[in-house]
Design the sequence.
């Protein structure tokens, strides 16, 4: 028997059941295509909505990242708020990548680049990274993912992570601190923590990554 399909499966084998969800924010309203086999396909995830409501304005230019883009609510919001920036919408799930591509096209957001993690050019550095990260892949995978992508933040740039409290937000915050990241809790609501992660001047894996 094969392994069961998760929202983070590379090629979900659940029969497609296309649907739409509304993303309504004070500055943006979009109808987004979703499907089975992707994260939170029946409504915008409350953690994602919280991040999008609370996030400070993103940098107006440069490369921005949404790591684990799903069907694209975070990437498309970044792209709409920063039309002169290039937004990398990254996921391992092919169905999610196809949906993000289609959603960006329907919304007329030509500044979204949809990519598998290995297809983001190695020299791209991010002026900001926003993510509702895939906590359910397990601690080792999550730590590897965060090391990989936070390590590509420009000096002084912030990573904004929304994580469910009961899925280990506080232990993740501690781990990031131990890795040398400077982490501030921007807020806590509806069972989620919103974390601002920055590279310190020096020290730890985070400081070392900045010196590359
Ligand atoms: C919690 S969901 C968030 C989806 C979307 N950003 C949203 O807010 O609705 C996390 C996403 O991370 C993706 N993911 C899992 N492992 C990944 C990896 N190694 N690299 C990039 N994305 C990954 C999953 O496929 C999933 O779409």
Sequence:
């Amino acid at each position: 028997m094969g392994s069961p399909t998760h929202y983070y499966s590379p090629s979900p084998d659940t029969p497609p059941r296309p649907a739409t969800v509304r993303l309504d924010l004070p500055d943006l309203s979009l109808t987004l295509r979703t499907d089975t086999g992707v994260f939170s396909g029946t409504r915008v995830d409350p953690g994602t909505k919280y991040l999008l409501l609370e996030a400070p304005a993103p940098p107006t230019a440069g490369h921005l990242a949404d790591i684990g883009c799903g069907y694209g609510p975070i990437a498309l919001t970044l792209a709409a708020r920063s039309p002169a920036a290039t937004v990398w919408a990254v996921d391992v799930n092919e169905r999610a990548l196809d949906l993000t591509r289609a959603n960006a096209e329907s919304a007329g957001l030509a500044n979204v680049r949809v990519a598998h993690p290995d297809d983001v050019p190695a020299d791209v550095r991010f002026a900001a990274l926003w993510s509702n990260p895939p906590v359910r892949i397990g601690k080792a995978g999550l730590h590897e993912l965060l090391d990989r992508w936070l390590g590509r933040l420009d000096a002084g740039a912030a990573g904004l992570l929304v994580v469910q409290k009961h899925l280990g937000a506080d232990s993740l915050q501690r781990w990031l601190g131990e890795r040398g990241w400077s982490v501030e809790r921007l807020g806590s609501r509806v069972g989620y923590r919103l974390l601002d992660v920055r590279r310190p001047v020096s020290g730890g894996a985070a400081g070392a990554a900045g010196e590359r």
In short: The longest strand covers residues 153-164. Strands lie at 19-25, 28-34, 63-67, 86-90, 112-115, 126-131, 153-164, 182-189, 192-198.
